[in-house]
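Section 3.1: Structural characterization of target chains.
Under the original work plan, the team committed to producing a structural model for every single-chain target entering the pipeline before any wet-lab resources were allocated. The record below documents one such target. The sequence was received from the expression subgroup and is listed exactly as submitted; it comprises 542 residues.
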Amino acid sequence: MLKWLKGLGGGERPDHPMYSVREAEKLLADLPESNPGKALEEVATWIESVSQTPGYRPELRAEVLRVLEDTGLRFEESLLSQYLSAARIHDHRSRDRCQKAFAFRNALSEAYLACLVGDFGTEGEARTGDPDLVLGLLCRGMRSTAMQEKIRHLNYMGVDNQVWGRLYRYYRMAENAKLATRGAKAYRAEQNPTTTQQELLRPLMLEIGGMESVAPEHVELASRLVSRISDAFEVVDRASPGHPFCIDLAQPAAPFQYGDAPPAKPTARFFGPGKGIERLQELLDREDANALPGDRKDGQEFSRWDLVRVLKHLKLYWGPDRPFRLNKRTRAQGKAYILHSLDAIRRVVVQVGTDQMSAIESTFEERGRKLALEAEQLDVAPEVWPEKDVSENGIGVEVPLKQGDWVKIGRLCAVKRADADYWWVGVLRRLDARGTSTVVAGIEILSKNPSSMWLKLVGKEGQLASTWASSTGSHKYDYVNAVLLEGEGDAATAGSKLAIDPKEYVPEMMCEALMGEKTRLIKLGAQRDSGDDFVIVGFAWM
C-alpha cells in the first residue's frame, strides 16, 4: 500500500507558496469552480512551479504534487465531460478543452518524472526513498502519460512520439528497480491495486485498438474497458504468437505489429491481449442481443448499443484478423459533394416504386404522419469537400472549415464526385485532425449502385399479414423507406444490404418490395452495421 508521508519534518522549508500540504490545500481552495478550464490551467502552472523549485524534501514534493493532481482531476473530469457532450471537429471550444486537459497531464507527467529522477535517483545506482512511495509515483506518472494519449485520441490529433518516449522511460525505471510487477494502490479512490506493467499495457492496447475509427464517446468507453481488463494483458521480452505487437523501450515511437520480422534488441518488448479477448467475449455474450442505436435511456451514460459496438471493435482490432488497408490509394485533386443522414440519402439516389406514392401518402396521413418531402425533392445543398485520395472502395477528403458540424465517426453519407452522374453511399470511418486547421476524413464506400425503395411490412414469417397488422392497432400496412446497398454485381445477390431507420427495423420481418408491377418479398436479416441514425441489415429475397 502506498505510504504518502505527511507533515513538514525538519530542515528549511522551500521558497514557494506551497511550502506544505496545508498551504497547498489552502491556495487550491480559491480555484474557480465554475470555470474548470481556467482552474485546470492554474493547477498546471502550480505543478510546474512546484516541480522546478529547489529545496523540497523528496517526500514533501511528492505529496504536494499528489494534492495538485487530485485537485486537478476534478476539473479535468468536468472539462472532458463538456467536450464529450458537444464535441465538434472544427469547434475551437472543443479543441481548447482537450488542449487544457492535455497540458495538465503533460505538466504532471513531467513533474513526476523530474521528482523520481532528481529527488529519488531512480535512474542512478544510489536510489533512495520508500519503495512503495517510488512505486506510487511511477504509477501516477505513467497514468498521466497514458491520459495524454487518450486525450489526443478524443479529438483525433495523433499521439506525439514524446508521449511514447516518456512512457517507456517510466517503465525502464520500474524494471531497473524491480518494481514492474509489484502491486500498488496509487489512487485512494480505486479499489484494486495496479502495477507499472498494467499502466504500460493500458495505453498500448488502447493504441492498438484503432481509436482513430471510433467516435469520441466510444474512445472514452474503450479506455474504461481497457482499464477494467488490463490485468489480462501480457508483455514479455521475447516474440511469440500470443504477443504480436511490439515496442522498443529505447525508441520513442508508437507500438506496432511486427509480423514475420520481430526486432532482435534487448530493449524490445512484445505484448498482446492475453486473456483480454476472452474477457471481451464474456461481456458480449451478456450484452449482444441485437442492440440497436437510439436505445440510450435517460440518465444512462452508455447504452447497450454503445457497449456492444466498442466491444466488437476492440475484439476485431486485437484479434488475428486485425483490419488493414487492402486497396492502393491514388492522389486526387477534385471535389466531392457530400450529404449526410439517411433521410437525405434516400432522396438523391435512384428511386424505385414511386408509382405507388399516392397509396403510401394516404396511409401516412391517416396515421397523423407526413412524408418529409416528395420523391426526388431535396431541401439541402450538398457540402463541397476537396478530395485527397481515392481507392476502389474508399475516398479521402478534407473537411473544410465552417462545414462538417455533423461529422462524426460512423455517420452515413451520400458522396458524389464532381465528374460523376450518380451518388454513392458511404460511412465515415476515420478522422485525422493533426493539421492545425484541416481535418482529413476517410469514407468507406458501401455501395456505388444504391437505390431507394419503399417496403410494405406484411408480418413475420408464418404469420398472416392481417393478424400482424391488427396487433399494431391498424388494419392497414405500414411502409418503410429503405436504401438498397447493392454490390457491383446483381442486385439479387446474397451480398446486398439495406440501410433503414433503426426505429423501423424488426428482425425476420417479411416485407413486400414495391418495385412497380413486379412485387417481390424479402425477409430482413441480422444487422451488419449501425450508426446514430441508421442500421444496415442483410436480407434475403423470398
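The chain has a mean pLDDT of 86.
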